[in-house]
Each structure stands twice: as C-alpha cells, then as structure tokens.
Amino acid sequence: MKRKIISNTYLRDIEKYQIKLYLDEDDYYVCVKKLIDVREKFIIHSGLCVMDNGYYVFEVVPKDLNYAMRLFLDDKKNPLEYYFDITKNNGLDELTKIPFYDDLYLDITYLDGEINILDEDELLDAFKSGDITKEDLDLVYRTRDVLLDEITNGTNKIMNIDFTKYLNDF
Asked: What is the pLDDT of residue 9?
C-alpha cells in the first residue's frame, strides 16, 4: 500500500503546473492542477490524450469514503476521463496540510459510458505477499461494487460535484 500526496501524484512528465487546494469543504478535499509544461503527453489506451499543456486535473479526496477521484479535463475544461483509486485511508497530512490517500491498488476508470477495472493483478499480488490484509481485500471489493453501481446509475456524489466552480480561478 502506498501513501499518495495529491499535490504531486501522477506528475512524472509534468515540468510545471499550477495547483489550488480547497480544504474547507465539509465532506471532501479538492485539488485542481493546471498543467503548464508537459514533457510528454499522457495518452490512454483508447488513444485519448488526458494530460497535455493547458489541461487540468480535478481531484477529490472524500473524508469518509474509501476512494479518491481524478477527473482529467482538456484545455477548454471539457471532461475527458474519470479515474478512481480505491483507498484504505484518506486524510490531511499533519505536516504538509495536503490531502493524501492510502492506495489499495484497484482502480476504476469511466470514459464515454465505458467502465474499466484496472490493476486487479497488483491487488491480488499485494494480498498474496501480505502487503494488505483479508479485511483490506474485502474493503476493496465492497468499495468497487458500490462505485460500479453508482457510476452506472449516475448517483456517485463525488462525480456529481460541480467541478467548474473550482476551475474559475484559472
């Protein structure tokens, strides 16, 4: 299990970016990144570019749910792909005051009505090696099932946040 601090997660090929944190929401933390200088575009399996100069990453870390969500947006602030990390713990790092989550390997993506489950092999390897417990594994599958239902039915409250109000300052 890896602890991920949202201020720098998934920015390997990003040379320069702007970041804004919103820590005062009741149920979640928000981070918005505007990508300024991208060394290499990030293109997903479908051929869609989700990270390039001028693109945005809208991230939400719920305080009491076992996942974190990223929404990739293009340079015109159009949604591209939703990406969910299933997590064990979410919170605010005491030292840096930046939101974090403890990643439990399994990920879910949503793009154009298609849902994909990713990295189940990593999840099972982590369980076999003792990196996560049976309780963690059960938590992952319970959370996966809830997310799949909510995404399919359009009822996921984090996906339904009005992300545009957080992008107005950019």
From this structure: 62
